[in-house]
Amino acid sequence: MILIQARTEPSSLMKVASPLLAIALTLIFGCVLFSAIGKSPIQALHVLLIAPLADSYNIGEMFVKMGPLLLCAVGLSLCYRANLWNIGAEGQLLAGALGGSAMALYFGDSDSILALPITLLAGIASGMIWAAIPTYLKLRFNSNLILTTIMFNYIGLYLLIWAVHGPLRDPQGFGFPESAMFSDTTLLPTLFESSRIHLGIVFAIISAFIAWFILSKSHLGFQIRVFGSDEPAAKYAGFSSRKLSWMVMLFAGALAGLAGVSETTGPIGQLVPNVSPGYGYSAIIVAYLGRLNPLGAILAAVFMAVLYMGGDLAQIEMGIPVAVVSMFQGVLLFFLLACDFFINNRLAFSNKATN
Amino acid sequence: MDSDLIVQILFAAVKTGTPLLFIALGEVICEKSGVLNLGQEGMMLMGAVVGFLAAYGTGSAGLGVLAAMIMGCIMSLIFAVLVLHLGANQVATGLALTIFGTGLSAFIGSGVVGQTIQGFQPIAIPLLSDIPFLGRILFSHDILVYTSFAMTFILMFVIYKTRIGLTLTAVGENPHAANAIGIKVLRVRYLAVMFGGVMAGISGAYMSLVYTPMWVENMTAGRGWIALALVVFASWRIGRIMLGAYLFGIASIMHLVLQGLGWSISPNLLAMLPYVATVIVMVIISADKFKEKLLAPRSLGKTFDPRQMA
User: ipTM, 2 decimals?
Assistant: First the structure.
């Protein structure tokens, strides 16, 4: 007889084991799925997980994808810790790409050493603005943050598409909806000779450590944690929910904006309609997989970046639609949430049926 | 603007509002039981693709709708098990359902992108469709639109006039009290969530069998999310959901109207309209904190664990 019992103390082992278990279950699910559609599961797993790390070029590409995922996930981790359901990283990323690109194009061929820093700041500011509007609407008018941030994802997307069809379109671009290529002074420097790895990944890792420091060492982080676990207690202690919401949301918006501008000034080098293959949405999964801990997000972002790479390779080598990536992401979060049940509960085995 | 154009716009508003009506009716029942399912977009996409595949394979649009309903129900069951049995966070689980549904629908639909089928044909209802003005707006549609009318009135009756409606409201308002008087809270919530899934399935099928009719990746374009806002807009009342769905319908075809009037605004800017309208409406409705607290089901979004009885 197997019974489910509530644990008296949450299991700290399961807190760590749950993401690993969820990843393992997702991979098993993947094998079953690939067998079902007549593909070799071994080959599929190899393409999805091993091939992306097989040579130095692919590892470089993995870091390129990891940057924006991590930047967005770090901000979201803090938001979710504070019970702020910001689903708007995608829109904030697109806003950052748009604002940063407008600035880069404004600089044109200028050789000012300030061109790149100001371009990056423009991207960060744009992401902050895109986060600030839903935050203001929530605090001033009590509107639902989940729904407004989602709506701003769509609004941001159409604004970006409008911009590349209109004011930011390359006049010499034969009518393609793309901006002109940015000049070298507004491009992020790459870290190595033969790879596209650029400064973005450095920003991402630094931001993860800053967020970890804020969360675990600062008074602000203490407030975030109290708010997240016991809102009445936080209010009783006199913490301002308004101030906290602003800080956390603007921080998340800034990082997502930086992710966006780092994409356009990094690997892409111009503004295009499909800046992001859903990084802002995937970052939600990364944040959860990393246990809403900024340092955990680093490991989770590596896994997610590998999955993105694997999805591309699976499409090229095995003809598997690339949508399989977002399906796996959903399955992964399902398994994670299911495994988390065992943080507060356990299976008990007993010989006699009770009750 | 001549009256013929107005009739055409309102006819299109009903047609565009119908998928929103279906999915929002499902979600309002789900929320009335105290469960917030953010997986609407994912369930709707799965309904759309499975409905299309079934209709494409069998040649019957009716079977397509049936398949979409079953698929929507299966999707909602994944959510229900995680949220109701394993006590998972409703927001996170709903997001997972949407991400999963978006990916899986694109995955299984990749073979039929661009294919077309014979969807439902309009049926003018005798006599009613002859009513001047209203006849052409309301009674010259396809069978699914009439089904949505019927569903609205049936739900109004069931929720406000029957014991089932009382039970559902009791579970959403105070699950502990409902449990104390012998209502099986989790069973009620399971049924409410599954009803939401079935309606999301029909809504998706409407998109791929009537509205377009074809399958394109991500074809619901955020309608599942707009439906969630619609429920807030309607203050969780069935009748207002119908009104709201058609108002959102008008907002989503506004770009066609403005272009028809000869305004030269970029179509990409006009495509933002439904989302901007949603934000504005949410702000207006939610601004009155007291009112919203009074209207939203009190246990909405909160986990109920029958083992932890107060």
Answer: 0.89
